[in-house]
Design goal:
The complex is a heterodimer. Chain A is globular. In chain A, the strands form two sheets. Chain A has a six-stranded mixed β-sheet with strand order 2-1-3-10-4-11, sandwiched between helices. A five-stranded mixed β-sheet of chain A has the order 7-6-8-5-9. Chain A is α/β, with parallel strands linked by helices. In chain A, helix 2 crosses helix 9, helix 2 crosses helix 10 and helix 3 runs parallel beside helix 4. Chain B has two domains: about 260 residues, Orthogonal Bundle (MetI-like fold); about 210 residues, MetI-like fold. Chain B starts with 8 loop residues before the first helix and ends with a helix. Chain B is built from 24 helices and two strands. In chain B, helix 4 runs parallel beside helix 11, helix 16 packs antiparallel against helix 17 and helix 20 runs antiparallel to helix 21. In chain B, strands 1-2 form a two-stranded antiparallel ribbon. Classes of the chains: A alpha/beta, B mainly alpha. At the A-B interface, helix 1, helix 3, helix 4, strand 7 and helix 6 of A face helix 3, helix 6, helix 9, helix 10 and helix 13 of B.
């Protein structure tokens, strides 16, 4: 045995540290607890990450500021990295108000009974997906779902796995048109977001992809991605998609009438007001309109059919 | 894969321990042949399984994106704003790793006190025996589930609380630590503690002064090893969205900002490299032990000399831990809040009873086979990396007679070694999720991209372990042969090849066990296997299927661990 003096020092030292750490726990407990509650006086908003993170980072903080001014609440934006995480955050209560897709909204409502769809963009009631292809794939545009059979033998990417316009509805129309996923070349990819899909097709990484029409249009206008080799194959029939979903306990946590005030603030966004117009423009909309849960029944039944609901 | 002392040694060597039959050269050759054949069969099956999908495997279209990514390596993002984000993220990662390790140590000490025989005054009775059995089972179950999966489950209850990252590291690492600590305590000399007890010392005092001092070097050494692993885990956990370098990587990959990806890769490599060097120095000073020993049940021997480096490191770690605690803003409040209780009840309620995922047994069975095939192919890639890079990364001790020649080749060797170690460091520092994201650019989703991603990552770890083992190899047999006039090539072949291939096999088996568990990570980002199925079902909140998948992953990793350990023990006998 070697002399044990230093060891004892170490031992005593570590006990001391543990004790310190324990004290630390008590001291920090209370302020952090408030923050942990997420909505202790603050409205936390979030959104499914359907586009590039930096675009979301421009859009939602700006909207949070508008909402804060209109409602007098403190509003913060919580960025989240994937679709299911938004639903989870909404379920546990970290997120009070969230920009959901059709499917994620249905999922969230089944996890949080009483959650309410309060507003959508003017374009969301009749929303469309677009199938796009790299010109190298040599596929000609077509006019109905049956044309999708031309995709057989080509590589294909969806957006996120639980995206409505990037996965659910495209897959639904593929089945309607008689194209099985197994007919594609290789397994379908999941790019993660609509921007990623556009770039994957533009670069030829995947020959064909399905994107949400609004992001597709925005990409064409922005001109950040070279789309000279991308053709639009087909625009799907319309369906109801994105919406703002509010937790049922917002009024209880933030005061009576909060949900209504938020709804009013959203509906009052005015394209004539330059500050509002900037946000609306980023949303690809001219105005927000009221909506209700029943508008997404079709999405729910399609999701059930495709096995995307528990 | 050609240097083989193969698993088939097992039955023969167990027999050798009891009745010692004559071991003839033919017998050895036969065993090796059978062993090699078995491995070839398993690898062949895995290849067939991964290659025989109906569709295509290689996505040639993705090559252009990969090219664009590689082209950005010379031009990493260096704007001050972004560097600040990187620095913040790196600190977050270190803090999570430190607090997670601390939590693991607390769990480990508590568990070890119950599990170790040395800590009990009397031989434990039936009640304690029963408690221990339950505890052991729980610990096995807990550590068979990957940190990332734990994180996903914790997120369901705690939300995006930093506590998620800390707990996801602390819980599985704690289970592993409890087992290793108990083994260390049991291996420590028992006389001092018995003597103190006999002379009337109270239990706690007897343990603190009679048992712990002898075990401290090994305990500390293991603690530092855990921290090393925790850094890598903390990066991987970023995928869940709790922050740190991993999350920034995911964000930059999502935005396809390749220049940012490279900056983050550099940050991860530097961080991981610094911690590796620090930790191996401390561990080397404290005790003679390797990672494979920890997992194989042997605990190594403490070094006699006292190292001030190790002592100061322990002090630094303790102070750092306190700082980390305050810096992180982690609070236990989330653990005891009413909301957490409510959500936990709900989660348990959702998880039970288990049900089959859509598609039933065939889907579950297929995913299980995919997981195994992926792990096997990943090991093939990892062994390939090790065989190519490992020898370069190994410091070769020159033979006494040709000092001059050694001096001549020293500089290029040094360059080669630093380069090779750098490659291994990069391979193991970049999280497998990122390797998988890259593999998915050029390969269609399936077993193959997962195997490539895991293989590169594991290759980085395996290469390092094996290179270190090779360095510590006894070179005297070779020197003796050469002194006796045997030609140098032949001497090396006869005296160096067998022990070095033995080490390669041992470590390969050890990493295979871990690799099976790691398949969960690449599954989550879209490869294949049980991890993929897990992520799919979790993303649609089908919790009853999630439970089944957890049970299946547990069964697969437990089985591979038992099998791997048996073979390792047999061939080391």
């Amino acid at each position: 045995m070697t002399p044990s003096l230093p060891r004892r020092h170490v031992l005593i030292g570590s006990v001391g540290v543990l004790a310190l750490a324990a004290c630390g726990a008590d001291e920090t407990a209370s302020p952090a607890a408030e923050a942990g509650d997420g909505t202790g006086g603050t409205l936390v908003i979030s959104a499914i990450p359907d586009q590039d993170p930096e675009k979301l980072g421009r859009l939602y903080p700006a909207l949070a500021a508008l909402l804060a001014d209109a409602t007098g609440l403190e509003v913060t934006y919580q960025p989240v990295t994937d679709y299911p995480a938004v639903v989870r955050g909404f379920e546990v209560g970290d997120i009070g108000l969230s920009w959901m897709g059709g499917l994620t909204g249905v999922q969230a409502r089944s996890r949080v009974p009483g959650a309410r769809a309060i507003a959508q963009r003017d374009i969301d009631a009749d929303f469309h997906s677009v199938f796009i292809a790299n010109t190298a794939a040599g596929i000609a545009p077509f006019t109905d779902a049956a044309g999708l059979t031309a995709l057989a033998g080509h590589s294909f990417t969806f957006g996120s796995e639980t995206s409505t316009s990037g996965r659910l509805m495209p897959q639904y129309f593929m089945e309607q048109g008689g194209l099985a996923v197994a007919d594609l070349k290789g397994e379908p990819g999941f790019s993660g977001s609509h921007d990623a899909t556009v770039e994957a097709v533009a670069s030829g990484s995947f020959e064909v992809g399905a994107v949400n029409e609004q992001v597709w249009k925005a990409a064409q206008e922005a001109g950040e991605v070279d789309l000279s080799e991308v053709v639009e194959l087909w625009r799907t029939p319309g369906y109801a998609d994105y919406h703002w979903l509010a937790r049922p306990d917002l009024d209880e946590r933030l005061g009576e009438g909060t949900t209504q005030r938020i709804t009013d603030a959203l509906l009052a966004l005015d394209a004539a007001d330059p500050r509002d117009a900037e946000v609306l423009d980023l949303f690809g909309a001219t105005t927000f309109v009221p909506t209700e849960n029943a508008n997404y029944d079709q999405i729910e039944s399609v999701a059930e059919e495709l096995g995307l609901l528990a | 894969m050609s240097l083989d002392t193969r698993p088939a040694d097992r039955p023969a060597s167990t027999r050798a321990a009891t009745e010692r039959p004559r071991v003839t050269a033919r017998r050895v050759a036969l065993r090796r042949l059978v062993g090699t054949g078995l491995v070839a069969l398993v690898v062949g099956w895995s290849l067939v399984r991964s290659l025989s999908t109906d569709g295509a495997l290689v996505n040639t279209g993705g090559l252009r994106l990969l090219g664009r990514l590689l082209a950005a390596v010379g031009d990493p993002a260096t704007s001050p704003d972004f560097l600040r984000i990187v620095l913040d993220a790196a600190l977050t990662t270190v803090v999570y790793a430190a607090l997670g390790t601390a939590g693991a140590l607390v769990i480990g000490v508590a568990g070890a006190l119950v599990l170790s025989d040395a800590t009990w005054r009397h031989p434990p009775g039936r009640v304690v025996g029963a408690i221990r059995l339950v505890l052991r089972g729980m610990l096995v179950g807990v550590r068979a589930i990957h940190e990332l999966i734990w994180a996903l489950l914790f997120v369901s209850v705690l939300g995006l609380d930093p506590l998620v990252a800390v707990l996801a590291i602390a819980v599985p690492f704690g289970a592993q630590t409890a087992k290793v600590f108990a083994e260390i305590l049991d291996a420590a000399p028992r006389h001092p503690v018995s003597a103190m007890r006999a002379s009337g010392a109270r239990s706690a005092a007897a343990l603190a002064y009679g048992l712990v001092p002898a075990a401290i070097p090994l305990l500390l050494s293991y603690a530092f090893y855990r921290f090393e692993c925790a850094i890598r885990s903390a990066v991987v956990l970023g995928v869940v969205g709790v922050g740190g370098l991993g999350q920034e990587m995911v964000l930059s990959l999502q935005s396809r900002n390749w220049d940012e990806v490279w900056t983050l890769v550099a940050a991860v490599v530097v961080l991981s490299g610094v911690v590796d060097v620090w930790s191996s120095k401390v561990r080397g000073d404290l005790a003679v032990v390797s990672c494979s020993d920890w997992s194989g049940g042997s605990t190594g021997t403490p070094r006699g000399n006292r190292s001030s480096w190790a002592r100061w490191s322990a002090v630094f770690a303790a102070v750092g831990l306190v700082a980390a605690w305050f810096a992180s803003g982690v609070s236990w409040a989330g653990l005891v809040s009413a909301r957490t209780r409510e959500l936990t009840v709900r989660l348990v309620d959702d998880l039970l009873p288990p049900a089959l995922p859509p598609g039933g047994w065939s889907v579950l069975g297929g995913a299980t086979l995919d997981t195994l095939a992926m792990a096997v192919l990943a090991m093939v890639v990892a062994v390939g990396v090790t065989l190519v890079v490992g020898p370069l990364a190994t410091r070769v001790r020159p033979v006494g007679t040709d000092e001059g020649a050694a001096r001549l080749t020293r500089a290029p060797r040094l360059v080669g070694r630093v380069g090779a170690r750098g490659v291994l460091l990069v391979l193991r520092s970049v999280p497998p999720t990122v390797w998988a994201a890259l593999a998915l650019l050029v390969l269609f989703p399936g077993v193959l991209p997962g195997a490539v991603a895991l293989g590169l990552y594991t290759g980085g770890i395996l290469g390092r372990l094996v290179a270190e083992a090779w360095e510590s190899m006894d070179t005297r047999p070779r020197d003796a042969l050469r002194a006796a006039g045997v030609r140098s090539g032949l001497a090396a072949l006869v005296a160096v090849l067998p022990p070095s291939s033995h080490q390669l096999v041992t470590y390969t088996l050890y990493r295979f066990e871990i690799c099976v568990r790691d398949t969960a990570i690449v599954g989550v980002v879209g490869a294949a296997g049980l991890g993929r199925l897990f992520a799919e079902n979790l993303s649609v909140f089908r919790f009853s299927a999630v439970t089944t998948l957890l049970l299946a992953s547990f069964a697969v990793s437990a089985a591979s661990e038992v099998l791997g350990r048996r073979i390792r023990r047999a061939i080391s006998a």
